Structure prediction request, 229 residues.
Amino acid sequence: EVQLLESGGGLVHPGGSLRLSCAASGFTFSSYAIYWVRQAPGKGLEWVSDISAGGITFYADSVRGRFTTSRDNSKNTVYLQMNSLRAEDTAVYYCAKKRYTTSSGRRAGLDYWGQGTLVIASS
Amino acid sequence: DIQMTQSPSSLSAAVGDRVTISCQASQDISNHLDWYQQKPGKAPKPLIYGASNLETGVPSRFSGSGSGTDFTFTISGLQPEDIATYYCHQYDIVPSFGGGTKVEIK
Prediction:
């Protein structure tokens, strides 16, 4: 059974840092890209970042230069390092698995999501 | 970046009604579009992938169609358990989501 479990959320002052983790199981982790998607309170879904199986990263303009995504295939875990947090970064952060392997070359949506972790940037 | 215009933002329909939601992309995205259902406090659940393919285990009353820039999501016979917000998601190059459609029972 595929499972994704986020952790690391919490309350942080604006300007502070937080590191989220996404622990995966039930599939060949090293073959799949992983997304981070966030949802501000009462708002819609926003793509934040994704990392390919080989570790190539992509970022939304709103977080580029402040957030860093990485992965440790030996631990089946993806990380989202969030620095210089702003009030507008307050959201539930989800990690999600891409449907097809990176090596397939196929563009893909998301077939499994974690339950999310809440980040609140507030003084 | 590709913008996704989803409409309507909310709708109210009776049990058994046919419900249609649209997503329009600002440029051609082929069939690189999925639909998700999200209930309050829960993660999104995939329903349709590749514009028209039904996820395993999802009831057949849900369907998707379209290609290029115009896409449609349909519930053919709304059920009480379908009360949720629905999102389209394009992944052609830089990913983005539609604004969501909140579906309620009349």
User: Anything to note?
Assistant: The interface with chain A takes residues 32-34, 36, 38, 42-46, 49-50, 55, 87, 89, 91-92, 94-100 of chain B (CB under 8 Å).
